[in-house]
Design goal:
The complex is a heterodimer of chains A (136) and B (388).
Chain A (H helix, E strand, L loop, with lengths): L2 E2 L3 H12 L2 H6 L4 E9 L8 E8 L2 E8 L9 E6 H8 L5 H6 L4 E3 L2 H6 L1 H11 L4 E2 L3
Parallel strand pairs in A: 1-7, 2-5
Antiparallel strand pairs in A: 2-3, 3-4, 5-6
Chain B lengths: L7 E4 L14 E5 L2 H5 L2 H11 L3 E5 L8 H14 L3 E6 L1 H15 L22 E6 L11 E6 L4 E6 L7 E4 L9 H20 L5 H23 L4 H19 L5 H13 L3 H16 L4 H10 L10 H15 L13 H6 L1 H10 L12 H13 L6
Parallel strand pairs in B: 1-8, 2-3, 2-4, 4-5, 5-8
Antiparallel strand pairs in B: 6-7
Helix pairs in contact in B: 3-4, 5-6, 5-7, 5-9, 6-7, 8-9, 8-13, 9-11, 10-11, 13-14
The chains are: A alpha/beta (136), B alpha/beta (388).
Chain lengths: 136, 388
């Protein structure tokens, strides 16, 4: 069943995918830190969506939809325009390449990200483990 | 979207004379004591003096350079205020120099903070970086990667940012001629691994494929000659070129599992980088296997290897690489590399952890689980072909 992007249901599905992913749990077993995934509006999408994930040692302790960035103060913020984020979810764009070319912005403790690049890749893989539909 | 980044490459006999054409006032030469004793630093200083450039030398770079060494060099650079940084040496020297140049020009960025997600570093405003390799393998003269060792954590860190690529690479085979056979062979296997992984990783691209294939051909043809007779200048020149070509190739695509496992092995057991990679490469080809069978076939074709009907190219290519390694007296297993079993066994968790955390692993066409990584290392210790 396809799940509407940007909803609490989508955040719950992602949390479940993380819990079921041995690859993510292995890759992120030393990961410490919560994060925002921020989908920004662009020509193809008029909304802004923020998903909050509390990730700790391979587990997802919380996943929720946030209305305003100021609601929480996560350790990391990963943001990008809708079109790029959708291409990543559709596996048409490599998430790390998107970060390296500045299409997707990353803010936070870079040293930790550099020590666990596979955690980022596996997190994105988790997002592709269930079918997402996007609002018109 | 992706980039193809390359320094100005000056190659061939007498390439070192490019230094005499440089514009600048003060050069900071980064090197090691062995390179100084071979007289190469004097040659570099002589060329620079022809351009009216004075030199200061930092010769304290160790194999597998640490962050502390980088800090020490930067302190001296701040004292001298160079407008040229000239690295003369192997991969360790050039990597240290790249990191020093970043910290010198951008004191707000520490070496360990170099990462691919930052841009607009503005390097080159204060100092240009010239890299002069004295080994034929690392390709560091043409790459935007730096490998530094975190001595406290027994871990090598691969720091990447395309803006740290050297401004000029001077690839003069005369500086490779004194390499003893053992270093010639291990660094040559390093170049081969760069080329094979650059050609087969998931970020391979049209701009790098040709470079990688040509480098593979050059290594197979000329490495045995360069090892056998270090004075064979044609072989030296071809291997020096192959290393830089492979460097340009892999830095614009990336390296994969042989590097992830090789970095891990090097950090724990201090096996020379190229030796570790060359040893591990055929096993990774076997492990990746069918996921890249078409590419193994392309490499095999370029090397004129015969693939019998019904047979796969991967195992045949792996065996060809083992044949090359054996012919130049490189070890084929971790056991042959002299790693004691008890230390190997007790270090297994660390070897696995390091591998799984290595950035190179993300572009492997087949990514191992932790369990598979442990099994992989055990096979490579015993010299068993990968069959899982």
């Amino acid at each position: 069943m396809a799940i509407l992007f940007g909803t609490q249901e989508w955040a719950d599905a992602l949390r479940k995918a993380i819990e079921n992913s041995q690859s993510y749990q292995e890759a992120a077993k030393k990961w410490e830190g919560d994060l925002y995934i921020i989908v920004e509006s662009d020509a193809a999408y008029k909304y802004k969506n923020i998903a909050y994930l509390d990730l700790w040692h391979g587990e997802c302790r919380a996943a929720s939809v946030v209305k305003d960035e100021s609601e929480k103060a996560p350790k990391y913020r990963i943001s990008g325009p809708f079109t790029i984020m959708r291409q990543i979810l559709d596996k048409k764009v490599d998430p790390v390449k998107a970060m390296m070319t500045g299409k997707v912005k990353v803010k936070g403790d870079m040293a930790q990200i550099m020590r666990m690049p596979r955690a980022a890749v596996e997190l994105v893989n988790c997002m592709t483990m269930f079918e997402t539909v996007f609002p018109d | 979207m992706w980039y193809f980044v390359v320094p100005e490459v000056v190659f061939g006999q007498d390439a070192l004379s490019r230094l005499a054409e440089l514009q600048g006032k003060s050069a900071f030469i980064v090197t090691d004591k062995n390179i100084v004793s071979l007289g190469f630093v004097d040659k570099v200083k002589e060329q620079l003096s022809q351009a009216g450039i004075k030199s200061n030398v930092f010769d304290e770079v160790e194999p597998d350079p640490s962050f502390q060494t980088v800090s020490k060099g930067v302190a001296l650079m701040n004292q001298y205020g160079p407008d040229l940084v000239v690295a003369v040496g192997g991969g360790s020297v050039m990597d240290a120099a790249k990191a020093m140049r970043v910290e010198y020009e951008r004191p707000d960025i520490k070496a360990e903070e170099i990462n691919p997600f930052i841009s607009g570093l503005g390097l080159g405003m204060k100092a240009k970086l010239i890299c002069i390799p004295t080994t034929s393998g690392t390709g560091a003269e043409a790459t935007f990667a730096v490998v530094l060792t975190d001595t406290a954590d027994q871990r090598k860190l691969s720091l990447i940012n395309r803006e740290i690529v050297p401004d000029i690479a001077i690839v003069d085979p005369a500086l490779a001629v004194t390499m003893p056979p053992g270093i010639t062979s291990s660094t040559g296997m390093d170049a081969l691994t760069h080329a094979v992984e650059g050609f087969s990783c998931t970020w391979k691209n049209d701009f790098t494929d040709g470079l990688c294939l040509r480098a593979i051909q050059l290594v197979f043809e000329y490495l045995p000659r360069a090892v056998k007779d270090g004075q064979d200048m044609e072989a030296r020149e071809k291997m020096h070129n192959a290393a830089t070509i492979a460097g340009i190739g892999f830095t614009n695509s990336l390296t994969a599992m042989a590097h992830a496992t090789g970095h891990s092995l090097g950090a724990v057991f201090h096996v020379p980088h190229g030796r570790a990679l060359g040893l591990l490469l055929p096993y990774t080809i076997e492990f990746v296997g069918d996921a890249r069978e078409e590419l193994w076939a392309e490499i095999s074709y370029a090397l004129k290897l015969k693939i019998p009907k019904g047979k796969k190219a991967g195992p045949i290519l792996a065996q060809a690489i083992r044949g090359l390694a054996k012919s130049i007296k490189e070890p084929l297993s971790l056991k042959e590399a002299g790693i004691p079993f008890d230390k190997f066994d007790s270090s297994m968790d660390k070897l696995i952890d390091n591998t799984m955390a290595d950035g190179s692993l993300i572009v492997s066409a087949r990514i191992p689980t932790e369990e598979e990584t442990g099994k992989f290392f055990r096979y490579t210790y015993e010299g068993r072909s990968i069959d899982f």
